[in-house]
Amino acid sequence: MKKIAVCNPNAGKGLSKRLLSTLIPVLQNDGIEIWMTRSKHDAEHRIRDWCNENPDLEVCFIISGGDGTMHEAVNGAAGHQHASFASIPTGSGNDFARYFGGFELDQDLSAAMERSTLSKHDVIRYKLNGGQTRTAVSNMGAGFDAEVAFSANQSPLKKLLNKLSIGKVVYVLFLVRQLMIFKPYSLEVTVHNKTFLFDKVWFATISNQPYYGGGMKIAPKADTRDGELDLTIVHGLSRIKFLFVFLSVFKGTHTKFKEVYHLRSEKVDLKAGADVRVHADGEDNGLLKENQRLTATAIPSEILISAKLALDES
């Protein structure tokens, strides 16, 4: 099997760039081909081109970056039947590696991968506003959480604070700002051929695995091999109570609140009563337009993952 390391030097607020001096000799020692991404979407485009040129070759894409880089990689390899994925987590969230297990920078990578579990898992196949079909590995979100991440990432303040090694402060600042200005929205949800209407929705998430947002346990019982998606909707809360509930997501205790709605379904259809920002695997996907739809479907056993965590034993 061919191994290609796709390294994003800008992942993790620059953390990845600092770690590459350790990582590159490890990859070279193992004879692994190295690609350095140059810009956003570069990983997706290069992987797609390689897969189109080598449709019959088995390949493992080793992703050195964060959840966004993995998101690009999986979309680039969509339709390639012989691709698998592994993670060397150097991003800021690393929820993919948190669930599946990632590989360490200083270990014998080839030997570690041979000892790892290679297993099939579900993905989220989604379409936003009737547009192009895309794939998410871990989760999607619409509303408050997506607005916080988008606003923070667009802010010039982020670069300054990153240089001071206090980049996470910007997310706290924008969380507080969005808490004051965010307008909850109405949401029409269709699952199991039934339609439900929710008012004053703060955010809705569609999860394939438990973690999002850098360790927040949004869907504690989500499983990448059950053929279903976990839908979580937080609605009908005052701003103060919402903050309390939002912080409780880190421990996964938010599910105890009556304002947190949860269900499982193979397919989820959302229609918002206002323009709502959407993320997929933490990557901004633009706006779910008013009265347009976000449709998401669980595709069973669609992705091969090489991981340290032996999920097959659980």
From TrEMBL:
Q: Which domain of life is it from?
A: Bacteria
Give UniProt keywords alphabetically. ATP-binding, Kinase, Lipid biosynthesis, Lipid metabolism, Nucleotide-binding, Phospholipid biosynthesis, Phospholipid metabolism, Transferase
The record's InterPro entries line, in alphabetical order, gives: ATP-NAD_kinase_N, Diacylglycerol/lipid_kinase, Diacylglycerol_kinase_cat_dom, Lipid_Phosphate_FormReg, NAD/diacylglycerol_kinase_sf, YegS/DAGK_C
GO terms in the biological process aspect are:
phospholipid biosynthetic process
Residues of the DAGKc domain = 1-130
Transmembrane residue ranges: none
Cofactor(s) listed in the protein's UniProt record: Mg(2+)
Q: Which GO terms describe its molecular function?
A: ATP binding; kinase activity
Q: Which family does it belong to?
A: Belongs to the diacylglycerol/lipid kinase family.
Protein name per the record: Diacylglycerol kinase family lipid kinase
| Originating organism | Jeotgalibacillus salarius
